[in-house]
């Protein structure tokens, strides 16, 4: 059954400073949404708040996944409910191999005694790593330790493909990637496409959207979604930049630093 | 005036004990002289830990009687899991309190002239060899009160001798079982690797009781002669209530290598003094230590590599996890003596704190008396990184499991260095039990 993530009037603070000022968004299984916008407009804050980053405090509004109150859940419960966040800066964890970590993650969704068999796990991991053109030795390397920027991004997509979430949020998955890596990452995301999978892509470059056609495009400024449209909106942003939106809405400074 | 501590065993006792054990005259003499010195020598002073109130000298029994194990299946469960019960052809010594309770040596090892036996048998049957190395180049009798007391009252241990050019691939394994409330152990392990030989030795000190008042005064000496290679693993799991002094000392000759992997998991108060003297040119010392402190125990872990040889290399890696109200000091000392040109001394100490009341201090010390050298150190004391937990939990892993992964990962560099699979598994399980 396809999932629905509904965000209503979301207000979020970090260290007492309000970053999100009433975000409304609905993502359904089968849909790919892209959130675009210049730096400092609250895009990454939105992704962190949905996942439950310890530093972000939701002061108002709601996040509902299939009728369940996400804000009442711990981070791990959110993940097991079907949310996934590909992080902009994934942590490095020494001494824990990529493979062991991923098996723990998969088994955390299964009952005791129902754990994924080692063979089945290895087959799935090998297949996905091959698909993402990753070296097989990365399975036995420590989680993100010493990974290049591009390797970390691929590893985030690998995790998504292994875990198969209902709704994935990809926070600047394209930043710092060369064109070949960008193609591979896009390939992984497209592979996930389907009725059961909803996706929110956060980016400030249009180029990722050359490889992944979104169903919906949203623009964030000043901590709100200020404009939504179809894929043609991304193309217009690529061609003309953000100034026309600012003019249209009477915004002088798009960042959250300034009050409108 | 301070009251003199009267040692519980006198010269006559030590003399007759040595005679009863059938020891050669030199050993009897060494014991009696050491006892005399023990009266006057001061206690050791581990940096930043005050042990003046710790009891290392007052106890009732020097020797307890223990039964032999008629077969390996009679061993306590926690010991059976350490060893391969199926293999008849293994190099295994089991000591029960003071009693040598089981020994087996593979034919290949025996045929190459390797000696692996309890220390009393070694004194009777290999007296000259033992005399050459016993408390001579490694630990000296008169370093302080505890080394002297050890020499006087030594009541258990093992002797390992690897002849010249002999390379042993299968590990030698000692298990020192502590299962008697009244036992006190002055255990001595002497490992000698002659020129161009190589050996892997692993030992377990294991209490099968939850708590006891036992006193442990342990010395291990490793002598690696020219171009020899020794890998020395240990997992100590002595019970709460014990008081432990454990001194593990290495002496490396020219181009010799000594690598330590120590899992120091005692639940009692412990002073661990681990030192390697890199005497020969091109010698190499690597000391890896993991520690988990819990309850109210106080511990001091001093790891020391002294460079005498030119182009000698020393590496210290220590990772400690502190929980509850445990207190630990981690002293890492890299010392480069004058003349040890091109030496390299590196050390890293990391302490992870799991509770507000736990205390951990990492003190990196470099003492350098030579110009043409390289040296470096890194030390940190911190808590589990909340962002690491967030990352792991964002994949569905529970907080408890996420913490477990981070802690295991933190201790992995040393756990993975242990050479015997059963012992590695045991250490992993011990860590599991201690940090949960």
Automatic annotation (TrEMBL), chain A:
Pfam families: ABC_tran. Gene3D superfamilies: P-loop containing nucleotide triphosphate hydrolases. Residues 5-247 form the ABC transporter domain. Keywords: ATP-binding, Nucleotide-binding. Transmembrane segments: none annotated. The keyword Nucleotide-binding applies. GO terms for molecular function: ATP binding; ATP hydrolysis activity. SUPFAM superfamilies: P-loop containing nucleoside triphosphate hydrolases. InterPro entries: AAA+_ATPase, ABC_transporter-like_ATP-bd, ABC_transporter-like_CS, FeS-cluster_ATPase_SufC, P-loop_NTPase. PROSITE patterns: ABC_TRANSPORTER_1, ABC_TRANSPORTER_2. Belongs to the ABC transporter superfamily. Ycf16 family. This is Fe-S cluster assembly ATPase SufC. It comes from Cytobacillus kochii.
TrEMBL record, chain B:
Residues 177-410 form the SUF system FeS cluster assembly SufBD core domain. It holds the Pfam family SUFBD_core. Residues 84-172 form the SUF system FeS cluster assembly SufBD N-terminal domain. InterPro entries: Fe-S_cluster_assembly_SufBD, SUF_FeS_clus_asmbl_SufBD_core, SUF_FeS_clus_asmbl_SufBD_sf, SUF_FeS_clus_asmbl_SufD, SufBD_N. Belongs to the iron-sulfur cluster assembly SufBD family. This is Fe-S cluster assembly protein SufD.
